[in-house]
Amino acid sequence: MSTFEPGREYDIVFAGGGTAACVTAGRLSAADPSLSILIIERGHNNLDDPAITTPALFFTNYAPTSQYTLFYQAKSEPSLDGRARIISTGGVLGGGSSINAMMYSRAQGADFDNFKVEGWGKEDLIPLAKKLETFTVNEPGINKAVHGSSGPIHISMGPHDLKEPQQDFLAAAESVGIPVVNDLQNFEGIGMSTSAKYISPEGKRQDAAHQYIHPLIADGKHPNLHLLLETRVRRVVFSGTQAVGVEFEPEASLAPEDSDKAPKTVQAKKLVVVSSGTLSSPSILERSGIGAADLLRSLDIPVVSNIPGVGENYQDHHSLFIPYKTTLTAEQTLDCVARGELDIPQAFQDKNTILGWNSVDIVGKWRMTPEEVASLGPEFKEAYERDYENNPTKPVMLLGSIAALLSGPNTLVNEEEKNEDIETAEAIEAKDKKSPRFTSLGLYTPYPYSRGSIHITSQDASAPPKLITGFLSDEHGLDVKKLVWGYKKIRDVYRRTNAYAGELAVVHPKFKAGSKAAFAKGPLRKNGFGSVQDRQEIPPLEYDSDDDRAIEEYVRERVETTWHSLGTCKMGANEKGGVVDKDLNVYGTEGLKVVDLSVIPENVGANTYNTALIVGEKAAVIIGKELGLTV
Ligand SMILES: Cc1cc2nc3c(=O)[nH]c(=O)nc-3n(C[C@H](O)[C@H](O)[C@H](O)COP(=O)(O)OP(=O)(O)OC[C@H]3O[C@@H](n4cnc5c(N)ncnc54)[C@H](O)[C@@H]3O)c2cc1C
C-alpha cells in the first residue's frame, strides 16, 4: 500500500525501491525517525506475498507473465549468433532481492581493492558485509569471525538441507582436483563448497524490503518513512544544477485504465537518490539531462551535466545453464514445483520443508591449472598471466548448481522462442521414467572482458532503451574460451557423481558422429561410486579441435545473463568515464546521488546481491555522515 502524501515535501526521495535503496532508506530512517524519506517504486508492494517470501516459488517470477520482473530487450548481436537477448531484473519493492535465487555469494576482498576508489577498499567494505548479516551456518571449519551475527539479513542452510547429494557432488569435484573448502564466502575462498542461502532457518526469503523497510513501517515509530508504489520515475527535476525533486507517473502496465496518468512532481529538500538499478538508473539520468551531450541534444533534452560515461561500461556475468539427467528423487529437486506437480496449498499446510529451499546447494569459484591455461592459446595465456597469475584469490569461473530443469534464464521467459529444448527434454524425460529429475549446472564468468551499453531512445519514459549486452564480444574471444573450458570441467565433475544419470543431447553441444567426446547415457558406475579414489578411476574425456568448435558454437548459441548487471553509472574519475564520485555524487550536480549496482566500476567474483547490500550500507554511512547522523 502506498503511504505517499501528495503535496508533502520530503527530505530524501529515492527513485527506485530495489535492493540497495531499501537498505539505505531503512538505515537512515532507523538512525533518525524525523528524517522524511519517500521511496518511489515502479512495482508492487512485496509485503508478505508468498510468491516472494517462499523460496521454492522463485521460479514463478521468471515467467514472462510475472508482474514482479522487468524484461529488458537487447539488440541482436553477432557475438551471440545473432540472438537478441532479454535481461531480466527485479520489478517489485525490494527489486532483485525479492525475486533472486537466494544464493549466498560474497565478492573477494581483492575485488573491493580493485575498485580503486577511496573508502571502497576491503578494509572499508568487509565490516559492512558483516554488519548486514546474521550468519547461522554451523558447518565445522567455518571461521565465524568473517561473518556477522546481528544484521538484518539471515543466512542459513534453510530447513531442507540435503547432505547426501551435497557430499556426492563435492567428492566428485575433489576427484578431479578441485579443492573442497568449508566456506567459499570468506572473501578469498577458491574451490567448491556447499551453498548457504539468503533464507532464514525457518525457510523465509531474506529480501531487502522485508528485512530493512517493512519492520520500520509496521512498528509505528517511523511515521516519516513513506512508499509510493506502482509508480514510474520519469526524471530528476533541477533548479540549475541542484536536484530539487522527482517527476513521476503511474506505472502504465499496473494502473487502472481510468486512473489519472498525468505526470506529477515531488520536492526533495535535501537529496535525490537515483536507485533504479543498472538498467534503469542511466535512463533516468539521461532523461534528466545527465549523459553524453550529443545524445541528449539529439533528443532535445537540455544538458545539465555532460557525462559521456552514463550508460556505458555495462557488465554482467556470462552464463551457461547446462542440464543433466539425475537419479535424484522428487524431494531432491524443484522440478516438482516447475512442473506443477507439488500441491502448494497442501505443502503449506503440511509445513513441507521443500518450500523453504532454493535448490542451490553447491557453489564453486574455480581457477585453472597451468596446463589448462596453456591449452586455451597464447592470447589467453598472456591475459591469464596479466590478470590472474598474481591474484591467487581471483576465480576464472563461478558455479551454482540448481536442482531443477533450467536450460537458461530466459527459457521460461522468451515467448517467441517457446523453448523447444525444454519441450524436447520433457518429452524425452516422459519416455524415460527411470531418470525423471534434472540438475542444471550454472557456469558464469566473473570478470568478463566484454562490455555493453544502454541508452535512451526518446524522452518518453515508456520507450524501450537501446541495450547492447556485449556478451562474448571481446576482441580475442577470451570470454568464450573460459566457458568452453568450464563446460568441459563441469562435465568431468558431474559424470563422477552418483546423481548423474546421463546427458540430453538436445541441450549439449552438437559433437560430430564418432567423437570421443560424445554423450554418455546412464550412470558411469551401475552400483554407484564410493570414495573419491573410486571416482578418479574414470578416465577424462578427450576433445579434438572439432569438439572444441562444437562447444564454442554451443556457448555462443546459449550464453545468457546471470542477472548480475552492473557498472553503467560507474564510480571513478569523470575523465575516465566515471559518473559518480566516491561519495556517490553525480558529477556536475548538487543534491543527487546514485545508489545501486550501476556504480560498481569493476566486476566481482560472486553473485551480486551481497555487493548490492554493501552499496546500500555504504551509502547509508555516507549520507548519514553528511546529515550528522550515526548510522
Ligand atoms: C532473477 C534473478 C536472480 C538472481 N539470483 C541471485 C542470487 O541467487 N544470488 C545473488 O547474490 N544475486 C542474485 N541476483 C542478483 C541480485 O539480486 C541483484 O544484483 C541486486 O538485487 C541488484 O540490486 P540493485 O539495488 O542494484 O537493483 P534492483 O534490486 O534491481 O532495484 C532496482 C529497482 O528499481 C525499480 N525501478 C526500475 N526503474 C524504475 C523507475 N523508472 N521508477 C521507479 N522504480 C524503478 C525496479 O522495479 C527495482 O525494484 C539475481 C537477480 C535476479 C534478477
Automatic annotation (TrEMBL):
Residue ranges of every copy of the Glucose-methanol-choline oxidoreductase N-terminal domain listed in the record: 277-291
Keywords: FAD, Flavoprotein
Matching InterPro entries: FAD/NAD-bd_sf, GMC_OxRdtase, GMC_OxRdtase_N, GMC_OxRtase_C
Cofactors that this protein relies on: FAD
Entry's Gene Ontology molecular function annotations: flavin adenine dinucleotide binding; oxidoreductase activity, acting on CH-OH group of donors
UniProt binding sites for FAD: V92, V233, W563, H564
Sequence intervals crossing the membrane: none
Domain of life, source organism: Eukaryota
Entry similarity comment: Belongs to the GMC oxidoreductase family.
Protein name listed in UniProt: GMC oxidoreductase-domain-containing protein
Protein species of origin: Lophiotrema nucula
